[in-house]
Task: inverse folding
C-alpha cells in the first residue's frame, strides 16, 4: 500500500487546557476501541528525550501530565487565565490560537509508532483551524484494510465535530488538487454534508456514517489512472465551494 495519511477538519470549540486533554483522551479511546491490538499510548517527553507511556486505561492522561501532553513553548507562549496578569499554562487556561498535541498509538512499545495522531482544537479566537491529522507506519499500512480506515474516520466522527476527512497520499493529492481548493478528494473522503452526495452518479460508492457520508473510490487505494479520473470527476461535481475550507 502507498504511504497514506489522514487529514481532517473539525468545528472549532473553545476549550480550557483541561477540556482539551479530556477531548483528546476520548478520541484516543475511540480509536483504541476499534482495534483490539492497539494497547500503547505515548507522547514525547523532552525532559528525558524519550517516549512517555501512559497507563493502558489512560487514567494518567490528565492535567497532572499537562507538560507531556500539550505542545507549547514555555518561554514564548502566553495563555488566558482568570488572573489577567497570569500568562502561564494551567489546567483552566485558555488559548487564543488553540491547543496542540502529538500522540503515538502502538501495538507494543517501540521506537516506531503504528499511528501518530496530531490534534489542534479549542481556540478562544474565532475562525481558527481545528484538525486531526494521522500518519501510519509502514508495518501498520501493510496490515490495515480499507475497512479499518473507515473505522478510524468513524472514531473521529464520534467527537461530534468532524466536518471533513480524507485518506490520501502525497502523490495522489498532487495529481488531484486544483488551485483555490484546500480540501481534496482522496481514496476515502468524508463530508458532514450528506446533501452533496445527491449530485454524485450512482457509479460512485458512498457509505453512510452517523453524521455524514464517506465517498469510496475503489477497493485498491492506489494512484491509478482510474482512481485519479474518478477523483477529478467527483472534484468537478462538488465544485470549489465545497472544497474550500473556511473555519
Result:
Amino acid at each position: 500500500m502507498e504511504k497514506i495519511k489522514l487529514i481532517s477538519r473539525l468545528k472549532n470549540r473553545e476549550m480550557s487546557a483541561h477540556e482539551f486533554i479530556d477531548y483528546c483522551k476520548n478520541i484516543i479511546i475511540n480509536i483504541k476501541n476499534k482495534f483490539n491490538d492497539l494497547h500503547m499510548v505515548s507522547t514525547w517527553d523532552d525532559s528525558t528525550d524519550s517516549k512517555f507511556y501512559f497507563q493502558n486505561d489512560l487514567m494518567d492522561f490528565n492535567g497532572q501530565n499537562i507538560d507531556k501532553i500539550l505542545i507549547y513553548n514555555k518561554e514564548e507562549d502566553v495563555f488566558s487565565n482568570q488572573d489577567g496578569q497570569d500568562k502561564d499554562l494551567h489546567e483552566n487556561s485558555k488559548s487564543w490560537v488553540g491547543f496542540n498535541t502529538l500522540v503515538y498509538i502502538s501495538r507494543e512499545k517501540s521506537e516506531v509508532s503504528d499511528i501518530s495522531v496530531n490534534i489542534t482544537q479549542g481556540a478562544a479566537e474565532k475562525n481558527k483551524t481545528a484538525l486531526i491529522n494521522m500518519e501510519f507506519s509502514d508495518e501498520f499500512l501493510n496490515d490495515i484494510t480499507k475497512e479499518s480506515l473507515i473505522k478510524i474516520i468513524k472514531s473521529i466522527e464520534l467527537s461530534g465535530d468532524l466536518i471533513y476527512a480524507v485518506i490520501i497520499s502525497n502523490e495522489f493529492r498532487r495529481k488531484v488538487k486544483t488551485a483555490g481548493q484546500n480540501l481534496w478528494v482522496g481514496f476515502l473522503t468524508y463530508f458532514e454534508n450528506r446533501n452533496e452526495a445527491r449530485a454524485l452518479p450512482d457509479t460512485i460508492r458512498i457509505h453512510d456514517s452517523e453524521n455524514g457520508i464517506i465517498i469510496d473510490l475503489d477497493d485498491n487505494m492506489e494512484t491509478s489512472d482510474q482512481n485519479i479520473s474518478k477523483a477529478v470527476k467527483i472534484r468537478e461535481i462538488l465544485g470549489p465551494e465545497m472544497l474550500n475550507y473556511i473555519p
Remarks:
- Helices lie at 17-34, 66-69, 138-143, 146-157, 170-176, 225-242.
